[in-house]
Amino acid sequence: MATYNGERFLAQQLNSIISQTYKNWVLLVHDDGSEDGTVDILKEYSIKYPERIIFLNDGLKFGNAKDNFSHLIGIALERNFEYFFFCDQDDVWIENKIEIFLQRFKGIESSRKDLSILLHSDLKVVDSNLDVISDSMWRYQKLNPECKTLNYLLVQNNVTGCACAVNRALLEKAHPIGRKAIMHDWWLSLVASAFGVVDFISKPTVLYRQHEKNDTGAKNVDVRYAIRKFMRKDDLVKSIAKTVLQAQNFLSTFEQCLKPEQKDMLRAYVQIPYVSYVRKLLTVFRFKLFKQNFLRNLGFLWYLRYVKEDFYDICDNPNI
């Protein structure tokens, strides 16, 4: 769990983990310099549950969730754990979440013990009081968990970090998280799709709380949302450009391990800023680099034309 100024909902999340039907777990928590009561809550729980909750109070501050989680991954890998769950500070887990995931892990691993696996589930979207907004975040955001191959995940992530877990084989291969990765969950999904398995659990295992301080949050992807999104040219071009940066990082990290067809696809995608619009479209259709519904694809294909040689300039920080 990576925390920052989460005092409002943190105790409720911790209690939902403590109440899990599966009891053989350890929670590693790292705070990113909270200025509210978050640290006091973490100290209280780590004292009350010393064998279960480990508060890594090392004073390091990263300034973003991705690097905070990457730091936690490195520490977790030093311990003799088999499976790793990612947890946000403001959600609530259903009581048998861990048990459900472990059953699926065991089923997949029964045929291959060394397989790199990422599992993720649907989420129930709720408001700050846990009143239900949508019974399925996948339906709410028009996400299709069947889109789990590398070509889809290069351009759009459908894995929500707080509802995913990985086995040790995947985490060892994916760590450290790429410097240009957009988020840790996206990077993990790319590694799993390229070298292992991405699988999903269709039932919600998390109450995904929406409030004014959500770092990302769930959006109801309807026609009105799509139109508002379509009008925000700079944001859309920046979003596409960041997927290219991430793909560059992924290719340079794993080039020696990738299959020839995966290399061809990645090399073509990272050339997107430097080729004509017609070539961009040919790359998209040749490798089926599609997003997960018609409206998203329409915006993607239209604004792809603006990702050009100077695309680094449209990103706030090209070294993310």
How far do the termini sit from each other? 21 Å
The radius of gyration over CA amounts to 20 Å
Mean pLDDT: 92
Q: State the helical fraction.
A: 40-55%
**Structural class from helices and strands?**
alpha/beta
What is the level 1 CATH name of the largest domain?
A: Alpha Beta
CATH architectural grouping of the largest domain: Alpha-Beta Complex
Overall shape: globular
Low-confidence spans: pLDDT under 50, at least 5 residues?
A: none
- Please state roughly what percent of the residues sit in beta strands, choosing from under 5%, 5-15%, 15-25%, 25-35%, 35-45% or over 45%: 5-15%
Question: Which sequence of SSEs, written as H and E, runs from N to C?
Answer: EHEHEHEEHEEHHEHHEHHHHH
Number of H- or I-type helical stretches: 13
Oligomer: single chain
The fourth-level CATH homologous superfamily of the largest domain is Spore Coat Polysaccharide Biosynthesis Protein SpsA, Chain A
Biggest sheet details: 6 strands, mixed
Protein name: Glycosyltransferase 2-like domain-containing protein
Domain Glycosyltransferase 2-like: 1-107
Pfam families: Glycos_transf_2
Organism: Desulfurobacterium indicum
